[in-house]
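Practice problem: predict the structure.
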Amino acid sequence: MTFIPSKASAWFEIPVTDMDRARTFYASVLQNDLVLEESGPNPIAMFTAQDRMASGHVYPGRPATPGTGPTIHLSVAAPIDDAMERVKQNGGQVVSPAISIPVGTFAYCLDPDGNSFALFV
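Answer:
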């Protein structure tokens, strides 16, 4: 029997070396506050989303070598060019032009720790 989940991704985690910097970076780029949660063994900063089962958080950890590791596509409001500019203004790096596909537009980026992520409209 084959298992076909309702969502391909249930959760994601992004390791960061500086929680305050990461919260500021992602909140500024995504225009969406990350909520600090300290009830578990490590502090985490939760991405705010309507559906928490497809959400995620940043946590203190060891990021992969810059530009390696998985790439998470994070939703932003259009226009994508504005979000790409916010990446640069907040210490990240845009590593591709905006790429249009039938279901939307995305651009690959690196956060200040070198974690690969994409903006998605």
